[in-house]
Amino acid sequence: MTSLSAASSELAILPSYFQGQWWAPESAAPDAPLARDATTGEPIARVSAEGADLPGAIAYARGLGQRNLGELTFHQRALLLKQLAIFLNERRAELYEISARTGATEKDHLIDIDGGVGVLFTFGSKGRRELPNAKVMIDGPLEVLSRDGSFLGEHIYTRIPGVAVQINAFNFPVWGMLEKFAPAFLAGVPSIVKPATPKGYLTEAAVRLMLESGLLPDGSLQLISGAARDLLDHLDYRDLVAFTGSASTAKRLKEHPRVVSGGLRFTSETDSLNAAILGPDAVPGTPEFDAFVRSAVSEMTAKAGQKCTSIRRLIVPEQLRESVITAISSSFQERVRLGDPRAPGVTMGALASLDQLADVRAAVRTMVAAGGEIVYGSLEAPAVIRQDGSEGDAPGGAFMSPVLLTWPEPTTAAVHEIEVFGPVASVLGYRSLDEALDLAARGAGSLVATVCSHDPLIVQYLVSGIAAHHGRVLVLDRDDAHSSTGHGSPVPHLLHGGPGRAGGGEELGGMLSVRHHMQRTAVQGSPDVLTAVTGVWHPGAQRRFGETHPFRKSLAELRLGDAYASPLREVSLQDVSDFAASTGDTFYAHTNAEAAAANPFFPGIVAHGYLLISWAAGLFVDPEPGPVLANYGLENLRFITPLAAGDAFRVTLTAKQITPREDQDYGEVRWDAVLHNQHDEIVATYDVLTLVAKTQARVSAETEASLAV
Ligand code: NAP
Question: What is the value of pTM for the model shown?
Answer without folding.
Answer: 0.92
